[in-house]
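Researcher: Structure prediction, please.
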Amino acid sequence: MLIYCIFVSTYFFIRTYHNYSYGYLPKPKEIEKDIKDFKEYYKTIIVNGDKISNKVEEDMRNYITTWYIESSEKNTTNNDMKSYFRHMTYKWFIGILVFLILSSFMFFLNNLLK
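Model: Predicted structure follows.
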């Protein structure tokens, strides 16, 4: 049973730290490129009396907000899963300690009675 607890605890430990990809906000150079792209786009179409800079600012705000929401959702899900696996690792580690103490007690009891 001790070996089983060790394997399960190791599984949860590995799942705690591996196979997670996090979402990040775009880098400043990417934002700068997107602003240039939006400006070029608005130069090619008729903007209904609005300034191009106002339209670009609005679009960039929407773009970054959407990116932030998606990244936050992904990161929150990852952190919840990591917390679950960490909790399960601790739980199974306590089981390891219990079985280790019981098996050590039985080992020493067996050796003293010989």
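Model: Residues 36 and 56 are 9 Å apart (CA to CA).
Researcher: Thanks, that helps.
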